[in-house]
Every structure is written in structure tokens, then in C-alpha cells.
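ARCHIVE CARD
SHELF: 3
SLOT: left
DATA:
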Amino acid sequence: VEAQLQDRIIIAPFDGVITNVSGLPGETVGSEPVVTILANDDFDMTVRIPEIDITRVALGQKAEILFDAESSMPITGTLS
């Protein structure tokens, strides 16, 4: 029974927040992604800054980023 249960457990290779689950309990899944996870690790983001605003930013400046998908959870960062 233990071995059968282990075959039905999905373990993520990293810590994160589950952002999407595709499927329902008891469903059989194929090769499509079942769970989408947003990693808790640091990540880099490349953004485009309009030329007119470039003088308003500086290295080391703090930034707050809002995503349309989750606008209630701003992500903070530093310009580098």
C-alpha cells in the first residue's frame, strides 16, 4: 500500500507557491503540466523603460512590480 501511495504523490523540486492546478482529484493525467508553481527564489526581470523616464531611475533604486495576474501581491526588487 505504501508503494502504491508513493506513486501517486507529486513532489516539487523547489519551494514555491502553487499558482494553478490543471485537473481534478481522481483524474488520470497525461504529459500535460498538472501544477504551476511560482518559485520563492530570487529571479531577474528585464523591463523596458521609456526614454522619457530613464532619468527617473538609478542603480540600487527600490522597485515595486505588479502583475496583472495577481495585482494584490506586489513584488519588491532592486534595480541593477
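SLOT: right
DATA:
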Amino acid sequence: KLVLRSQNLPYPPGHNEYTKLLEDRCGITFKMIAGKLTEADHAYNEAMKSEAKRKYGSDIFVLLEAEAKTNFEQGL
């Protein structure tokens, strides 16, 4: 199971659409971390992202981010 560690920060508009696409298409979920992400958290996320790219293509994050932006802008 792919899980990315994340801080509970204000994210830009449309970010929820992006995380929803990651979960729906790739099964990637997010675990909220209290406080700042540590070096270990960043290393863990990089390993998870590498595995996602291996499974879904090296451009999966770029493609889903672009799709989320379009969906958000079109109000979908």
C-alpha cells in the first residue's frame, strides 16, 4: 500500500482534487503528521513516490496534477 506522509498545511486551491485522483487511480493515501516533516519522512515519501512511478509511469504525478488543475478550473 502506498502512503505519503503530509503536514496539515493550507494547500493551494484544487489540491483536494489532486489527492483524490492519487487515491482513486493509484491507491495512494495520505497520513497526516503532527508538526514538521522530518528527514526520515521526506526519505519515506521519496521511496513511496519512486514505487508509484515504477507502477504507474514516471510522469504519473505530473499527469494527475495537470488533470486535477483542469478539473478544478472547470468546476468538475
